[in-house]
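Issue 218. Parser rejects a valid record. Input:
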Amino acid sequence: MIRLSDIEDAQTILEGRILRTPMLPAPRLSELTGADVFVKYENLQVTNSFKERGALNKLASLAAADRARGVIAMSAGNHAQAVAYHAAKLGIAATIVMPVTTPAVKVAATRAYGATVVLHGETIAEAQARAEDLRAQHGLVFIHPYDDPRIIAGQGTIAIEMLEERPDLDCLIVPIGGGGLIAGNAIAAKAINPAIEVVGVEAELYPSMWSALHGEDRPCGGATLAEGIAVKNVGKLTLPIIRDLVSDVVLVSESQLERAVNAYLTLQKTMAEGAGAAGLAAMLKEQARFAGKRVGLILCGGNIDPRILASIMVRELERGEQIVSFRLTIPDRPGVLGQIASRLGDLGANILEVDHKRLFLDVPAKGARLDVTVETRDRAHAEEIIAALAAEGFHPVRIHASDVME
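Output the parser choked on:
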């Protein structure tokens, strides 16, 4: 049993050793979702995720003999960094097993904190099996990322802080991987305010907790933006807590995760990884459900690969038709390209890319195909540009990202 008193004890241990992160109103996210949104910025911890809370609470509890043996953990990144960072501060040797699919930025950060990193397997489950082997071989102390009472208690300190600042919250929306974060916060939140609703979020590709709660066996796997919650095996300790205290688990798509990551960056000017943005993704999916409620979101991590983030931003511009591509069939004579470029400039379009082709058989012998990508203000502006080109006889055809390019 994990009680509020255990979480309060963890809060005492953590005080002054981790950041009490700010929880701030998010008016632009409120406007986007129709709810009254407050964000808890756990991405501001030293290792940029909430995992420091549970890791430090567990490491601080180890006896001197266990500290001397050294510790081992498996993680897709955030637990790894948290264990590595706080183990180093406590003088404990740490070995971390990470899936080979872990973003390079997380692997590099874990090594930088002084841990020995072992890359093994495609999934957390495979990494865990290797970690268990190494633990047995070298007599190391295993620091589980979620299925440990002290880890759960450490994570639960977030809800205490949130409700100290906003006791009137109607709902907490919490990402779910193995369940440590939501289990600890559900225990704390429900003990402080039994009326509060706690809702979990998983990626559609990894519905492990949803399946366990519903007695189903949905497919689980694939490349997800939310690798931090891409967990196939739910916790033995966390499952019964979630079953008792969590009202629902929402499954979110990859496009909803992308939109949420982009919203945090462009509207809140803060970095969220896929798992960190999962709560907002749930609100975007089920806006009517949360409309008008005071909702607390835990932005639980900000460790995202910059290349992936750049790709998400461009993809969202394409979804919002602020970047559009179209194909024109034009007469193949001097000056036409300049004419089109000038016309696009007159229409306020910024040309990003041009591909000029003459040798396709479906183009007239005296014609050419012109593929153009432009930056626009919004969807209405894009439609205005297409209409103007059509009126001038260029027969524009929209090219969508899903189209197969010739």
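Fixed in the parser; the record now loads. Residues 402-406 have pLDDT under 50 and may be disordered.
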